[in-house]
Amino acid sequence: MSELVIKGGRVLDATGEREADVLVRGGHVVAIGVGLVGDETLDASGCIVTPGLVDLHVHLREPGMEEAETVETGTRAAARGGFTAVVAMPNTTPPLDDPAVVAAVLAAGERAACTVVSAGCITKGRAGQELAPMGELHGLGVRIFSDDGDCVDDAGVMRRALEYSTALPGAVIAQHAEDSALVAGGAMHEGEWSSRLGIPGRPAAAEEVIIARDVILAALTGARLHFLHVSTAGSVELVRAAKARGLPVTAEAAPHHFTLTDECCATFDPMFKVNPPLRSDADVAAIKAALADGTIDAIATDHAPHPTEAKERPFEEAPSGMLGLETALALTWTELVEPGVLTPQEAFALLSWRPAAIAGLLERGQGVAIEPGSDAHLCVFDPSQRWEVDPQRLASKARNTPFAGRTLTGKVRHTVLRGKPVVIDGELT
Ligand SMILES: [Zn+2]
């Protein structure tokens, strides 16, 4: 059996850091140490070798919007971004409320450049009324249930979903917290910039009222609750208070919510349109502080590809969402690690083993530690390489990144999935 050695890097995982080579055979790490030799060598000099990244929130668009992305192209983008597992969100057409549709996405994932786990809908058709067949979906391996793209507005439905989930081992209800009535007609954050630009707003309160309500329902039901793309200072306070009470509540933040503000919308460029919207400077500061103090558990991209024509429409008519998989780690490094907001280990915790724990992926081989016997899902990251984001060079089928032209520090050099390199020197194999 052939052996792969990842040579000359600094191994960083939940247990610490050390200079070491990593030897991989048959899909597993078999040795860590200096001077290891294999049949094939990946140069990791100057690099950090870490457990593969895990993204709790990607839109792979299959089935139904394959002109924007597919399981194949989205996972290629993920691999280039250092991810070895992604959670596919269920707002597809048809939606992932049906065991047969979920099974088809999982089957496409078997051939993909990273592990694909499917989220399942909370409600049938994501209509917010009747519960989806959560038990059957759980039987297929679904652990994260969400109507993402839309909020579960009805408190009674949310209560039933939370109650039902407690009977499903490992299940977590993931809320897209935006009260539909409060955001109706809004296209950006409601604040000084929305009034100046004359664009209808989506208030921070729309997110916060749902988070406040759902924390109360989590306490009532004892269920695990996860908040997708938390974006406001008030939301952070609510999550912090829920954790202080010992409730099983977790939260994620997206890179665009700690790197961009609503001022970007002054360009009227729909690349900056996303739900929840880009917020104020004070909100961005609160998200960074929450990432640093552990209030927010994970960085998740909310990778949302759209065809170019769709994003060329006027701001208010264009669809919401932006790409994230190929820029998340470099943005985290450039905006949070280099300025000293996070240590390297904290950054990789937020991008790898903490989201893996939320999605139940540690039981399926995603790593907390790189040690003999662990599954070889690895990211080899060069923290000193500077590069410019060029939409034309992304592996994603779509081009809607708001970071075009931005120079970032840190690039994925190699990605290893099940012991096989899927990215070598930044290029897909
Ligand atoms: Zn969402």
Structure explained in plain terms:
The chain has 429 residues and is an alpha/beta fold. It has two domains: 3-48 and 373-428, Roll (Urease, subunit C, domain 1); 52-364, TIM Barrel (Alpha-Beta Barrel). The protein is built from 13 helices and 19 strands. Strands 1, 2, 3, 4, 5, 16, 17, 18 and 19 form a nine-stranded mixed sheet that branches. It has a five-stranded parallel sheet with strand order 9-10-13-14-15. Strand 1 and strand 2 (16-25) form a beta hairpin. The mean pLDDT is 97.
CATH topology of the largest domain: TIM Barrel
Biggest sheet architecture = 9 strands, mixed
Number of domains: 2
Oligomer: single chain
The level-1 CATH class of the largest domain: Alpha Beta
Count every beta strand, where a strand is a DSSP E run of 2 or more residues. 19
Gross morphology is globular
Separation of the first and last Cα atoms: 20 Å
- Uncertain runs: none
Question: Roughly what percent helix?
Answer: 25-40%
Which band does the percent of strand residues land in? 15-25%
Average pLDDT score: 97
Radius of gyration: 20 Å
Please, what is the CATH homologous superfamily of the largest domain?
A: Metal-dependent hydrolases
Q: Which architecture name of the largest domain does CATH use?
A: Alpha-Beta Barrel
Name the bound molecules: zinc ion
Structural class estimated from helices and strands: alpha/beta
Number of alpha- plus pi-helical segments: 13
